[in-house]
Amino acid sequence: MNETLSCIGCGAPIQTEDSKALGYTPKAALEKGLETGQLYCQRCFRLRHYNDITDVQMSDDDFLKLLHEVGDSNALVVNVIDIFDVNGSLIPGLARFVSGNDILLVGNKKDILPKSVKDSKIKNWLLERAHEEGLRPLDVVLTSAQNHQAIKDLIATIERLRKGRDVYIVGVTNVGKSTLINAIIREITGDKDTITTSRFPGTTLDKIEIPLDDGSFLFDTPGIIHRHQMAHYLSAKDLKYVSPKKEIKPKTYQLNPEQTLFLGGLARFDFVEGQKQGFTVYMDNNLNIHRTKLAGADAFYDKHVGQLLQPPSAKTLENFPELVRHEFTIKDKMDVVYSGLGWVRVNASQDKPVVLAAWAPKGVAVVLRKAII
């Protein structure tokens, strides 16, 4: 294939191998495009014909170039993060790259958290996490792009904060950024079928421009890949266990010291030392959780992973990384977070400390944070 072929919509080099990467075009569409002289990548084709923006993945270098471009402009940066996977959806060094531009933090997928959790508490908690990363957002908006929750509030907040400037929407893959942008477009136009092709000129790096009434633009940017997210180690079939679509129903397990919880075959939670207590698991409702004794846990995992302990399934087990142990001594109410999978809440205190070991696939981050609930 001629390597100089480019999408006439966004300028991305055309390729037919990786459907998640820039410039992907099915082979049949490539042949048709060459015949007609209208060669679009699949993303631009869907935008032209269905007014639908789909996320694509970029290399880290390409994403850094894009962030530098954001930093060189005078714009409002809308950083979309996944409330269910905050640590996995923060962009490392974003504060440095945006170079003093104003930031609006958008916590997406708020419908996943139990309804008993107040929005004000989540917003304050997200602000604390953002400050830890050096970000100083002007405001926080909670949304559910999937359920079209708070989209009007988000549009009004963007309009209030941008002050006539362009808007860049940034986020890692799997945070629901493109679903959110589609919801914004449909809210603004009132009908998704009213958007004409000419309103969406693309530019290089597959950044898509959405014109605003005053001549400024809202830029959709591709998502950066976070290698330490659980999703990158699972088959498409197993992804449903790490991407909840419904409100999570927390499950509390009363554990004695030297007991273990297997979180499917994806991860493991060992209660090593401390007083008997309840540990609450916040993960997809369909994930099978199995309790056993710590003493025989290694052998139990080796025997049952891919069968009793799923996912991963037996078919995908060969490519699944080994589990790596992370030990913590906890003296406060904390969440043990498995990036992209969920978290376990621990009720420890200074006079009742707890020693735990959290096991996750090699490469997947496990972090402690102040309890969100």
Question: What is the secondary structure topology, with strand pairs?
Answer:
Elements: H1 27-36, H2 42-50, E1 57-58, H3 60-72, E2 75-82, H4 86-89, H5 94-97, E3 102-108, H6 119-132, E4 139-142, H7 151-162, E5 166-170, H8 177-189, E6 208-211, E7 217-220, E8 223-224, E9 251-255, E10 259-263, E11 267-273, E12 277-283, E13 289-293, H9 297-304, E14 323-330, E15 333-338, E16 342-347, E17 354-361, E18 366-370
Parallel strand pairs: 1-8, 2-3, 2-5, 3-4, 5-7
Antiparallel strand pairs: 6-7, 9-12, 10-11, 10-13, 11-17, 12-16, 14-17, 15-16, 15-18
Helix pairs in contact: 7-8
Describe this structure in words.
By secondary structure, the protein is an alpha/beta fold. It has 3 domains: 1-50, no CATH class; 57-224, Rossmann fold, CATH 3.40.50; 231-370, no CATH class. The protein is built from 9 helices and 18 strands. The strands form 4 sheets. It has a 6-stranded mixed sheet with strand order 4-3-2-5-7-6, with helices on both faces. The radius of gyration is 22 Å and the shape is globular. Mean pLDDT is 84; it is low at 191-205. InterPro entries: G_CP_dom (IPR030378), GTP-bd (IPR006073), GTP-bd_ribosome_bgen_YqeH (IPR019988), Mito_lipid_metab_GTPase (IPR050896), NOA1/YqeH-like_C (IPR048422), P-loop_NTPase (IPR027417). Residues 64-227 form the CP-type G domain. This is Putative GTPase. One of its GO terms (molecular function) is GTP binding.
